[in-house]
Amino acid sequence: MDSLVFKGAIKYPVIARMFLHKNPYVVKLAKGEKMDYLIFYLEPVKMKMEAVDSLKNISIKGSSANIAYADLKAMLKNNNEKSASLKKEYDVLPEEKQKDSLVLVSFIVREEQLAKESYQVHLAFAKKYINSYYWFNKFSPCCRTARNGERSWEIVCCSARKLKKQFHWQRYSPVFSGY
Predict the structure, then answer these.
(1) What range does the domain containing 93 cover?
(2) Number of domains the chain contains
(3) Is residue 74 one of the residues assigned to a domain?
(4) Taking the model in full, what pTM does it have?
(5) Which of 62, 85, 102 is the last residue of a domain?
(6) How many Cβ atoms from other residues are within 10 Å of residue 89's Cβ?
């Protein structure tokens, strides 16, 4: 049985990426190339990662941030599938149809609807994980623009202020200026 150990000290969960054989940040993927990768959170806790066949199918135990992240991915699955389907639908159109303004507008309207649905999923996630570090890390940048009149972000920013007081994180202080 192979094993992998991460060494070092971290105070808070941090996003991490693991790639098999090729790092797309270093070497650009060829068109249509698929890769095996995992996006996860490293936490200052003992975590157990198990894989049977690939990185993308790794199960992680002992990590509250990864439990929340897995839940968010599950909550977004339907929306992500619709978005991928919309992209495929557009990509198979002949080039002249892709440039047709009426066709383009219809795709933009559908894409905007999917973005609104995604926003609602993220908001439901934020409410569900109101005291989660993962939530705080994922949504705190949104609070910068929360003054745009969208009342649904009120609970998010209110909770973010609560977390700021609870954890006293200086690294996020610019996010909360004015709140």
Answers:
(1) 65-176
(2) 2
(3) yes
(4) 0.69
(5) 62
(6) 11
